[in-house]
Amino acid sequence: MKIKNLLSLVLIILSTQAFCQTSNPIPFINKTAGSSDSSTGFDRSITDAFLGFGFVLGTSNKGATVNLGQSREFVVGVGLGRKLVKWNGLGIDVYYKSTDFYLKQDSTKILPNNVQHKDEKVSFDNFGALVYDRFYIGSFYFDGGFYFDWTFYTKHITWDSYPNTYGSTIKVIEKQLDFTNNDNYGLTFRAGQGKGVSLYFNYRLSKLFKGASSTYMAYPELPVYVIGIVAAIH
Q1: Which residues have CB under 8 Å from 125's CB, separation 6+?
Q2: Higher model confidence: residue 66 or residue 7?
Q3: Is 15 within 8 Å of 50 (Cβ atoms)?
Q4: pLDDT at 14
Q5: What pLDDT does residue 24 have?
Q6: What is the domain partition of the chain in residue ranges?
């Protein structure tokens, strides 16, 4: 089993267990496992478990144009927090996240070279953490926070078709790219209703690629936005 699939399975199992312990299986919403705090009249605990899917958005730079409808992200994670007052609380989530940037094949492409293929992508697998401040308005919530990702696995994948071969497509994978940074960070905003899916928006503040060296050039950066949905696992 591939390492990313194994990691996803472990976090999905943890998410499932977290939601099985609560009667309100909605991601990013306060879930109570016991009685209310007698001194405040409400439960101060916050528990998160989520599974999400998003799409890359934003302006592409010349030489690294991405196919926006094709470029996507998968995230799964768990977390906990504590309410400071009934309408506000702080928390932290930990997660696994995979983001795939599919590159447009045209004459301007330079990432990671100018060779054109049938299809091509650069992929980032991350472990991350998010510290957030959450506000509750009736059955709705809104939160915002700062995330930090450690990129433990990167890939450059190409697909090509050649005549006189035994298969319809030849797939080539280059692993652990030396021109990518080992970490990235940014801002996350989320909003949702107590009995529905939640939306999330990521804005990356850091650069994915290192500067120029003797072995590779300074590559143009990829789009910095991701918008998606997250849902409960139960």
Answers
A1: 3, 4, 96, 97, 98, 151, 152, 153, 154
A2: 66
A3: yes
A4: 55
A5: 45
A6: 3-231
